Amino acid sequence: MPITAYVCRRRWSKVISAAIIALLLAVTSLVTASTATAAETSQTLSGTVTASDTGDPLAGVEVRVYRWVAEAWQELAGSAVTGPDGAYLIEDLALGGFNDVEFVPPTQDYVRTRVDFPFAAEENILDQVLERSATISGTVLAETADGAPSAIPGTRVSVEREGGTYFRAGAEVDENGDYTISGIPSGTYLVKFNDPRTITTHLASYWGGSFDADTAQLLTLSTGETRSDIDGTLILDSTIPAPVATPADPAGPPAGNVTATGGTATLAATGGTASLVVPAAALMMLGLLLVAARRRTARAEA
């Protein structure tokens, strides 16, 4: 019986091995077929990029195609740069379905734009008009303990669109408190001064003086508009105590040792007088009085 069992196990091992090999060959065939199909259905994307304000072609715009590889993850599938005529061509794409195409201008004179585009044919055409960007600038100063406002270099200024397509941009003020933010599309925005995680001594505030986004004044920008009056003031955080300075000694260190005698002594540091009490002697006298009282009480009871 043991010999028969061993022979059966060998036969089943051969059967399982053959099945595994067949499965590997099948998977390899499918991968090869898929690769060949992708190669046969290679797609292209081409078009022209122009300016919204002049209609002229825009040269030097980088066009990027992103492919979805997961629900919240994309990878770059291909890119090209527009020529003097604003034209571009991206080859060897194998996408299918909706994917993102981003247009990145060489300067912030025009708005960086991303669109959702359906890749359906082998040759896909996408012409894009880039909007002339708006610009804001201003000065941000901070309150100080002595009341004279001053700049805090590195203070963050941000703009965030209210409603519509999400957009957010920012900049940091220089040593004079000045800043500039460009590349902004038309729309309505919240302008926020300071990130309290960076500048912890002051509160975050919004353009118009509010500390609450729900009541803050909104800034509406049109295409290509420039605003240079978007100023702000950082308010000291009242919950942070001001540092306590140690007063300087006007007379310097004492001229000699100060001896406590139980009377009055002149303090060389200030020139004033003060009564010096010796707590140890007082405690000793109190202890002697308590002991004497206890002895009298004991004698009376006896």
From TrEMBL:
GO molecular function, one term: carbohydrate binding
Record field: transmembrane: 274-293
Keywords: Membrane, Signal, Transmembrane, Transmembrane helix
Gene3D superfamilies the UniProt entry points to: Carboxypeptidase-like, regulatory domain
InterPro entries per record: Carb-bd-like_fold, CarboxyPept-like_regulatory
Signal peptide span: 1-38
Signal in keyword set: yes
Domain of life the protein comes from: Bacteria
Name listed for the protein in its UniProt record: Uncharacterized protein
Species of provenance: Agromyces albus
